[in-house]
Amino acid sequence: MIVRIIVVAVLCASVSDLYAQEAAFTTGLAKEINPGLIDCGPGSLASAVGEIKSQDNTVRIVPAATNFDSASKASDLFNECSGTRLTSISQLDLQSVPLFDAGGGEEFVMYLYADNYYELYINGELIAVDPVPYTPLNSSVVRFKADRPLTIAVMAVDWEQNLGLGSENSGGLAFNPGHGGFIAHLQDSTQNTVAITNRRWRAQTFYTSPLKNRNCLVASRQIRRSRPCDVRGENYAAGFSGAHWDLPGDWMMPSFDDSIWPSASTYSNKRVGADNTRAFTNFRDVFDTEGADADFIWSTNLILDNLVILRTTVD
To answer: Given Cys at both, which of 3, 42, 73, 115 links 131, Cβ 3.0 to 4.6 Å?
Structure first.
């Protein structure tokens, strides 16, 4: 009996450790380590990258550690940086879009729009990344071969101008939190809908900032809720914090168990601000398809949550 009690206690402790994942906090601005992943010229915001040490003595990359420099880029639908400005999906020559191999025989096409950046994994394979990390906002398309079931995993990043403090100089305020958003429509080779972004996806946040008061954050096991936090912009950010959680090494793999993650929250085109961008409105027929109207998805806080992992499985 004593042995049995000890074994049960050990098992319970290991499960508790797995789900705990307490937040590690940083304070203030990060140190810039890259002035910009790309240079899109005047009128765009520099996609700078920074590093900052959290209270657990871990160096954190903000807004995210990405594969931008080494990964294949998604093909453009609308990208002012590259000069591609399609006015409708009818202008797209799909056969000119590279066909990536995720280890399978069935062909798929995926249309994507992110505020601001995404990295797309299919069945654990990194397929392509967003060609524009920050602004101007853009939209893209990816073709790939894979076998079902499909595990679609996306790292979505709301970029930041004030590194480490999840905000930008806008609206007359030096520290004004922006908002994220991700939308996608997956079709097969005959243009039948296979998947759209909606509440069936899972969404988990791994970086939340700026926090004016850390106590506003509700974090317990897999619940990381910053909705009670103040999202108003400020001109001064002394003492503001960021909350960070470590990304699981296998978050993109089919074997990863995302059932304990919250369901994705959905947002309207207007709430995300996509109604004001040609990168989205030129392609309403694919993002807002009749009978397959995709939702913008994110975590529960569109404004403060800056690094979000999104996942779904298509049988």
So the answer is: 73
